[in-house]
Specification:
The longest helix is centred in the first third of the chain and has 12 residues, at about 80-95. The chain has one domain: Porin. It has a 15-stranded antiparallel sheet that branches. Strands 9-10 form a two-stranded antiparallel ribbon. Helices cover about 10% and strands about 50% of the residues. By secondary structure, the chain is mostly beta strands.
């Protein structure tokens, strides 16, 4: 099966710029990131609800009353570096394709991500499918190539089927849930000279570069929400015991997605016309992937008016985030801006990104 990133790579091939997304980064192993949650610092382990609970904390499926939560028909979202926007304007609008154009972006990561979730969510049960893709590119000088300018590119495409269930105990003060998932994942990593950048789309999609794997995994989530407490606690174990992805292709070894533990808390205040919440998450508590503690910290806040419009803000790895959402029952829109740290420590190589989602359902 083709990697399915040609359409993304072609749009970026013209500007040929970026550094590899570190293969040991948390983002590299993430299947889904919610634009809504990213606007509030990528927090949500203690309050996750609706279809986001499937990926952030399945225990949240047991929240609320009744038996039905939502049906998501389509929810395309895009996450793109602000650098991508600037380069695309220079190349496609101003027709500026000379080498100097790209040198202006040397050392700056260019990210382009797409995802779409479709599914049905009941209280205590959810069924859905996710398609997500991420491409990172960076132009830099390679010491192993006598300082020549080299393009580093990483791409990942995920096709995921999910089945999640949850239950509440002790007067709904303790919630526990699990997500069973089938993952088909294609990866491509590439280093080429800047002179060959015009062929990056074909190279990323070639059988010599891409690797296809598939397998089954389990996530586990818990929430503690005593009615006498002003706050809630959440714990999420992604890829419980690690998730093994195997391949039938010759020369492609099996791979394991690491177990990632996230813990967090939230304080919420609700009135008849509005709500306010503050949240904090600490991702990869055990340090299985990310060793820098500051890069694992997330904080956020949200204010909602009349249950259908709201503002979000927070800190993602120490960088500010902002978001806005409007939910008109059958159509929802999320828009925001955030920054992801690409380097090994916070403040080293920030990548500012814009995000947008348009969701239809009921």
């Amino acid at each position: 099966m083709r990697l399915g990133i040609r359409s993304i790579a072609l749009s970026l091939a013209a500007f040929a710029a970026a550094q590899e997304l570190r293969a040991d980064s948390l983002e590299f192993y993430t299947l889904y990131r919610s634009p809504y949650y990213l606007g509030r610092g990528d927090t949500g382990v203690a309050t996750a609800d609706n279809h986001e609970a499937i990926f952030y904390n399945p225990a949240g499926l047991a929240l609320g009353k009744g038996i039905y939560k939502e049906t998501v028909l389509i929810s395309p979202s895009v996450q793109v570096s602000t650098q991508t926007k600037d380069v695309a304007r220079q190349v496609m609008v101003e027709k500026n394709n000379d080498a100097e154009t790209f040198k202006n972006y040397a050392g700056k990561n260019i990210h382009f991500g797409l995802n779409n979730f479709t599914g049905v969510v009941f209280r205590r049960f959810a069924l859905g499918g996710l398609v997500s893709s991420d491409l990172n590119v960076m132009l830099g000088k390679d010491a192993d190539q006598n300082g020549l300018e080299t393009i580093h590119a990483d791409a990942a495409v995920n096709q995921v089927a999910t089945l999640a269930a949850a239950e509440s105990f002790f007067d709904e003060s303790f919630l526990i849930g699990t997500t069973l998932k089938y993952i088909k994942r294609n990866e491509a990593m590439l280093e080429i000279s800047a002179a060959d950048a015009s062929n990056i789309a074909d190279k990323l999609d070639s059988d010599d570069v891409k690797q296809s794997r598939e397998g089954y995994g389990v996530d586990l989530g818990m929430m503690l929400r005593p009615k006498s407490w002003p706050l809630s606690l959440g714990l999420h174990i992604e890829n419980l015991g690690t998730t093994k992805l195997g391949s039938e292709e010759d020369g492609v070894s099996d791979k394991r997605l690491p177990q990632i533990v996230t813990a967090g808390f939230a304080v919420e205040k609700t009135t008849k016309t509005s709500s306010l919440s503050f949240q904090a998450d600490f991702r990869d508590v055990l340090g299985a992937v990310e060793k820098n503690a500051f890069k694992r910290m997330h904080m956020g806040a949200e204010v909602r008016f009349l249950k259908f419009i709201g503002l979000t803000g927070g800190l993602n790895q120490g960088y500010p985030t902002m978001g806005f959402f409007a939910n008109f029952y059958v159509v929802r829109m999320d828009i925001g801006i955030m920054t992801q740290e690409i380097g090994s420590s916070a403040g080293l190589r920030p990548d500012q990104r814009m995000m947008f989602r348009l969701m239809a359902g009921f």
